Amino acid sequence: MYNSTKNSGGHIANTIVVPMIAVVLVSVVGIFGVMHWSARISDESAAHSQYRLIDGALQLMQNYMVKQQTGVVIWDEAFVEVNDPDPDEGWIFNNMMHWLFQNHGFSKSILVNRDLEVQQAYAQDYTIKWLSEDLLEELTPVVRRVRARYIISFKKTPSGLYSFVPRSSNSRQAIAETGIVALAGDPYLFSAAAVMPQIQSISPVRKPPSVLISMVPLRGEKLKEIAEMSRLQGLVLANLQNTREGVGRFELLSPQKRNAGVVAWQTNQPGSQMLQRVNPFLALAAFMMAAVVIAVTIFTRQMTKRLARSEAKAVHASRHDALSGLPNRTRFHTLLTDTLRDGVQKDTKTAVVYIDLDHFKDINDTLGHSAGDKVIVAVGERLRRVIPDSGIVARISGDEFAMVIRDSKDDEWLEYILDQVQDEISRPIRIGSRELFASLSLGVAVAPRDGDDPDELLRKADIALYDAKANGRNRRSFFEPTMEHHVQSKDKMSRELRLALKNDELDLAYQPQSDTDAKRIVSVEALARWTKTDGTTVSPAQFIPVAEETGLINDLGLWVLNKACAKAHDWPGVTVSVNVSPNQFKHPRFVEKVMAILAANNLPPQRLELEVTESVFAGRNDSVLQALRRLKNLGVKVALDDFGSGYSSLSYLRRFPFDTLKIDRDFVSDMNGNPEAEAILVSIIQLGKALGMTIVAEGIETVEQIRFLQAHRCHRMQGFFISRPLTDRALGRFLEDFHGPNSTGFGTDLSYQPLTAKG
After folding, report:
1. Which of 35-44, 176-185, 623-632 has the lowest mean pLDDT?
2. Among 8, 36, 166, 553, which is most exposed with the fewest C-beta within 10 angstroms?
């Protein structure tokens, strides 16, 4: 009986409750439906009114454009000039097109002559790339209508002549057509008006006019004016596919009814606002029904969350760097694009910072890639921690990062932020028991000053980064147009240098080195010189670094070596010194190439001296030392150039027995009357002698310097006082005069004299 009662109660409950729920459900759904339908009708009516406001504002603006254009299209002098068989384009440019830009903001203009040909085009940025066939096709019907209206304004008189009788009673009224066209995806307002005289005369024939088309971008100031006239806030130029709810859309059509863009705005929605006030009461009525589906909703939600988490992980992995957790290059580009768009709308500056870890390869080479990965993670965390909350940090690749700093006030504020970044990175990074120190080179580009295109900004930030690294690393550089010019100039110089090498257009100069007594020239240093075919002289300080960076230094170095060895036969008994770049030693067959050049020129190895700097040992000590020993075993002399200008580590002198030690010219120029400089110079001479090396002092410019070096028995001397660099012919005459029986040397006795005690 219990079961029967239970079943009966359940049956009654089902009989009463289910229909009640159905009635309540139908009632609530009906009420919601009617309310939403009414709200939609009200919202659509409001949106239509706002649409008409924008349409009216656009029409007023176009009419005003015609009035602005009147000053140059209804003008006797302009009418004569544009229809002249040989028009003065400069006059048209300055007095019509450029005048319209300066006074009314028409950034582009096209002048179509009577033959329907483009006579002249103007753009604010002085380019004509925007003048496309599609644009001219779009504007051709407009031009034809203007010409037709002009021609039919001439009425035939009984005398057979034509009199100008326009439909408008205002004789100053221009005959014009207005509209909208798309240029590079952006809508432009245009006004096309006939160029005609101020006072029309009787004419025997009706001639079509020239037509001036003036355009102004709708984006920016014009869009603001439309917003002010229509009293609508938040007007933007939107994509055609933008169909979000609550967003009004005014489609901009070209003269041929093609889409030229969309003006979008947040519509006023009185119906939706009313619905928001009523919804709480309706929601209360629907509350009891929601309880029925809570269990199902909870279960569905749990399953949905699991799916969403799985999807979010997959999306995150595709957009972020796996090691550092930072956005990757693709995601960074998307975020940068969005940020720049927001910056344009808010009229704020955005800084793009390209970052490179200095000498990161050394960490991987010395400590392994695991330590390098830990450094990358630590640097990423510090960058994320130190920049403003609204900023973006991404790992672009390897040891390269990038940042976006929004709402950048000025360069001084940016400098402050970047100071914090570099200070944070300079703190030691602990890897196990070891402390590592990292530094950054940064390149900065700022929008809109340096552009507003993401790819262009990244390119310019990369150029600035290159400048920072080229100027010593651990520093930052802001992009400047001269940097881009420098990159382009360097690329041009690289191509010209390659061609000059191919065509054997370079020359060599030779600077003599005298012995201690300044009575005999014992060696000459070969120096590359480049004079272009147009007579322009390029300094070695310009083309040698370019050759180093582009890899041309290998070809250039071998060319200098071959040329110098070939000329060495003209100066018997004189050693020829040739500078060798560190990059040349990276070539695995460099020693073999030197041997081949000596053999080809039949020059004894003892007459060749190769000059290297301390930087040649950086990172490849063992292979470099092996190559130097092979050359020395062949009999080639090896000199350590510019000793004292770098780290001057004595380990180089200990590990490899150089034949010659060349003292940097700075020590010689600083020694005059400077006891400390003289003491250092004497110490270097004594050090070299103790190791059995020939000592060469560079930069000799005074007889006092020679006297000092003679007193301390410096073996060889080189500088302008001995001789400036000479061509091969001039060097031959110099040696003949210097070593000849009637030679007077330098005009004074420079033979060795003992050092006298002072005071």
Report:
1. 35-44
2. 8
